[in-house]
Amino acid sequence: MSSVTPPKKPYQQCQSIPRVLKAFCYSAAGLRSAYVCEAAFREEVWVSLILLVVSFFLRVSFRDHLLLIAPLFFVLLVELLNSAIEAAVDHVSLDFHPVAKRAKDMGSAAVLLSIVMAVLVWVGVLWE
Q1: Is residue 79 annotated as part of the catalytic site, yes or no?
Q2: Is 82 in contact with 111 (CB distance < 8 Å)?
Q3: Which of 120, 107, 57, 46 is nearest to 81 (CA)?
Q4: Within 13 A of 14's CA, how many CA atoms are on the CB side?
Q5: Coil, strand, or helix at residue 22?
Q6: What is the pTM of this model?
Q7: What mean pLDDT do residues 19-26 have?
Q8: Residues 6 or more apart from 74 whose CB is under 8 A from it?
Q9: Which one-letter DSSP state was computed for residue 58?
Q10: Is residue 14 a contact partner of residue 22, using CB atoms and an 8 Å limit?
């Protein structure tokens, strides 16, 4: 067995805590960028914050409270992925292309399904 270690790639130069801090900063920059540049993300953030506050005033079990909060984060997560798809497609070309349209439409459909799921969870918990 050889004790030769493979050369580090440029993106692997930071180790442990500095790497985690850099990753956190990149994530914060992504959230900030989505909030500033994406109206849909901003709207979903505000709706989620309002519903989060409302959820604390509901007389539900801890489990049900988590059930109400989880889909709010899921909607934001899916919106971030949709925005990333749209940004990548737009970076490649702003010209109309059926495959680019399909990618954007699928991302939008994923957001719609996540919102429907969130509504169903809230209705289900509150109907109980």
Answers
A1: yes
A2: yes
A3: 107
A4: 9
A5: helix
A6: 0.84
A7: 93
A8: 114, 117, 118
A9: S
A10: yes
CA contacts within 13 A on the Cβ side of 90 = 7
pLDDT computed for residue 16 by the predictor: 83
Predicted confidence (pLDDT) per residue in 72-96, tens digit: 999 999 999 999 999 999 999 989 9
- Nearest CA to 72 out of 36, 121, 23, 110 is that of 121
Distance CA 16, CA 25 (A): 14
User: Nearest-CA neighbor of 87 among 38, 36, 20, 19?
Assistant: 38
Sequence length of the chain is: 128
Q: How many CB atoms lie within 10 A of CB 51?
A: 16
Cα separation, 83 vs 118, whole angstroms: 19
pLDDT of residue 6: 63
Segment holding 24, helix H or strand E: helix 16-37
Catalytic residue, from 38, 44, 79, 86: name it.
79
Phi, psi angle pair for 9, to nearest 5°: -80, 155
